[in-house]
Amino acid sequence: MEYLFYCRDRPGTRPLRDELLEAHWAFMDGYAEGMIARGPTFAADGETVTGSVHIVDLPNADAVREFAYDEPNHRAGVYEPEVLIRRWGNTLGRKMWDFEGSSPAGPRFLILAHARPGSTAARDALHAEQRRHLLDGEHAGSLIVCGPLLSEDGARWLGTAILAELPDHDAAEALLGRSPYARADLYASIEAHGWCFGGRDRDED
Fold first, then answer.
1. What is the DSSP string of 134-178?
2. How do strand 157-165 and strand 2-8 relate by DSSP bridges?
3. pTM over the 0.70 mark
4. Residue 78 contacts residue 10 (beta carbons within 8 Å)
5. Which residues, including other chains, have CB under 8 Å from residue 86's CB and lie 6 or more apart?
């Protein structure tokens, strides 16, 4: 089962994050086979790290808890105590490393849209239209990975998560902000964060 984890950094913890970088990487090495996407998020200045997102395939609830709460940054207090954990569906069926993108790479973003409670049935009715908007629209080639956020049992729709390469922050907000789900008022909120590929070939996450 695929899960999205989003950990938000506590203010003033960048030095501790940097100190724990190798320990963080070593922990993630144990999940390399199931890793779909990973990387740090940034504030509008493009420099201030605000969190980390990981999308990973895990076998059971125990593995989910271990991934979220035994990770070195979380144990040391780099992250806020509450971690966003959601089942996730891989609409494109790929990992972030399969994305070719532009050369040189453009700005990249994490886009999280949180569903209004009780909107699953309305979402289902608009699913095909939303899919066309994302997969056939002007930014279809910009999608790195995307998919729905779901409840643990997969029965309830809780939102949408996208990693994408887009011209700027406004375009990132508009990708879901102008979507059929948004026009039907199914999203309670949409947040867009600067993001980059994480891992040992980066100096972050």
1. HHSSTTGGGEEEEEEEE-TTS-SEEEEEEEEE-SSHHHHHHHHHT
2. unpaired
3. yes
4. yes
5. 3, 4, 149, 150, 158, 159, 161
First to last CA, the chain: 23
Is 200 a member of any domain?
Answer: no
Classify 68 in phi/psi space as left (phi over 0), alpha (psi -120 to 50) or beta.
alpha
pLDDT tens sequence across 81-103? 999 999 999 999 999 999 987 76
What domain range includes position 140? 96-195
- 108-151 pLDDT per residue, tens: 999 999 999 999 999 999 999 999 999 998 888 999 999 999 99
Q: Is residue 10 part of a domain?
A: yes
pLDDT (average), residues 70-82: 97
Whole-angstrom Cα distance, residue 129 to residue 134?
9
Strand extents, DSSP E, 58-141: 84-88, 108-115
